[in-house]
């Protein structure tokens, strides 16, 4: 299997920022970068644009411009570019299925997910079999936190959070930076208490030690696999989204898990990923969980 990082480009400042981030990450990991632009002929209202050849040339010119800009910034990085004749979601999912990461642009803060990621972003994040990184354009903002931590949310048991922890530790190891592993917890409702869960909490010395133990156990195999990556453990009572955001102010990447579920309007991501994509000040990586609902 050929390893690479794939970035979707559409000519927007957000997609160029995503391609630039992807190129830097490819350099950290020693991987090639592939830029992808999806194009499929659609009749338009403008008479001159009805010709498929005109639209196809515009698509190729757009990709060529993006390729030239990224190549000039990262001249030593192996780079390929490809126009795919399909819808953006189908094209990116097919191209990135064997990639390490799929990187897309995000429009930043906003009240509705579609306004943040564009019309295709949520579909990609909800359906992708590989981790998706959403990157905002930083025009008019401060510089990226190059030396910051990789912050990752850990939830459930070790198996539940393994995909997110894998992304966090691989990225931290490639960049030579620490990981901050965050586990949020809250008091369960009375009906959720059971003799078994109470016994486990009692054995650990209480609810807080129980949560701390769960985080240590989830981190143990990744500490062993990446012994040179410093790790800070943070356990805090509160909403998972709020706790994660409070710890990501100086992060260079926030990694969360995805629990995609089908709703009336299609596949939806979990509330923690939703909050991170809305409000995190840094790029956000969303890793698929193994217990996502299967694809059709």
From TrEMBL:
Superkingdom of the organism of origin: Bacteria
Record field: transmembrane: none
One matching Pfam family: Usp
Domain UspA: 1-136, 150-287
Protein family membership: Belongs to the universal stress protein A family.
Full protein name: UspA domain-containing protein
Record organism: Streptomyces laurentii
Lineage, opening ranks: Bacteria, Bacillati, Actinomycetota, Actinomycetes, Kitasatosporales
């Amino acid at each position: 299997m050929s390893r690479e990082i794939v970035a979707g480009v559409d000519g927007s400042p957000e997609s160029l920022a995503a391609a630039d981030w992807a190129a830097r990450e490819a350099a950290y990991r020693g991987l090639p970068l592939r830029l992808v632009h999806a194009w499929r002929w659609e009749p338009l209202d403008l008479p001159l644009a009805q010709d498929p050849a005109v639209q196809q040339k515009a698509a190729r010119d757009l990709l060529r411009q993006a390729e030239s800009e990224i190549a000039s910034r990262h001249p030593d990085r192996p780079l390929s570019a490809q126009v795919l004749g399909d819808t953006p979601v189908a094209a990116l999912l097919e191209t990135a299925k064997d990639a390490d990461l799929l990187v897309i642009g995000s429009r930043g803060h906003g009240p509705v997910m579609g306004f943040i990621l564009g019309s295709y972003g949520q579909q990609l994040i909800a359906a992708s079999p590989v981790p998706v990184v959403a990157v905002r354009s930083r025009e008019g903002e401060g510089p990226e936190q190059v030396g910051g931590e990789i912050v990752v949310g850990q939830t459930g048991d070790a198996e539940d959070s393994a995909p997110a922890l894998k992304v966090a530790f691989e990225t931290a190891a490639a960049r030579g930076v620490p990981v901050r592993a965050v586990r949020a917890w809250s008091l369960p409702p009375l009906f959720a208490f059971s003799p078994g869960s109470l016994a486990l909490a009692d054995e650990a010395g209480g609810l807080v030690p129980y949560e701390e133990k769960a985080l240590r156990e989830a981190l143990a195999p990744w500490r062993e696999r990446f012994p040179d990556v410093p790790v800070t453990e943070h356990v805090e009572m509160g909403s998972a989204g709020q706790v994660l955001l409070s710890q990501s102010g100086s992060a260079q990447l926030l990694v969360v898990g995805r629990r995609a579920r089908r709703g009336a309007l299609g596949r939806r991501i979990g509330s923690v990923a939703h909050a991170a994509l809305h409000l995190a000040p840094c790029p956000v990586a969303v890793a698929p969980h193994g217990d996502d609902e299967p694809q059709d």
